[in-house]
Amino acid sequence: MPRFRISASESVVVVGARTSLHPFAGAGPVSGHFEAELNGGGIDLTRPSGGIVRVDVKDLHSEAVHLDREMLRRLQADRYPLITGVLRAITEVTHGRYLMEGELTLHGRTCSVEGEAAVNVQGDGRLHFDGVMELDIREFGIDPPKLLILKVDPVLEVGLTFVADADTSD
């Protein structure tokens, strides 16, 4: 099965949170791979597909240093340094848009997740992925931060954008 390697320099995960004061967002690079047969600019769903994405917790940053410190503390970044997503199933929603289902390991816990993504295959064979999902951090044993009058909603919006090139190494 063809494998596409995610370009960490061109790919990002963005985590958005609603708070009692203002929205908050952090971002960081992603790495990993995506495996799929392609057909006519899309994914051939008659063949199995899968993939894995990884985010180093210490690479997630925002514009609020105090919130970054609190996030690293709550995520126990030294104990659980990686966030890992494993793609298990893909269903086409509309042409070029797919429901992605898999497992996410965060803070030492693995939970089932799903989200919708647009996948576009460029003429040069590069794969462009742009997806979003909601994630309740309480499912992973993480209490949302409360700092003085700032309270963070436990449901986060997670956006994943990546560019992947055909992996020709064997």
How do the helices and strands follow one another from N- to C-terminus? EEEEEEEHEEEEEEE
Strand order, main sheet: write it out. Answer: 1-4-7-8-9-10-11-14
Structural category is mainly beta
Question: What percentage of residues falls in helices of 4 or more residues?
Answer: under 10%
Keywords:
6% helix; two-stranded antiparallel sheet; eight-stranded antiparallel beta barrel; 170 residues; mainly beta; single chain; 1 helix
Q: What does this protein structure show overall?
A:
This protein is mostly beta strands. Helix content is 6%, strand content 55%. It has one helix at residues 65-75, and strands at residues 3-6, 12-17, 24-29, 31-35, 38-39, 42-43, 50-56, 82-94, 97-106, 109-121, 127-136, 146-147, 150-151, 155-166. The strands form 3 sheets. The protein has an 8-stranded antiparallel barrel. It is elongated, with a radius of gyration of 17 Å.
Short description:
This protein has one helix and 14 strands, in the order E-E-E-E-E-E-E-H-E-E-E-E-E-E-E. The chain is mainly beta and 170 residues long. The longest helix has 11 residues, at 65-75.
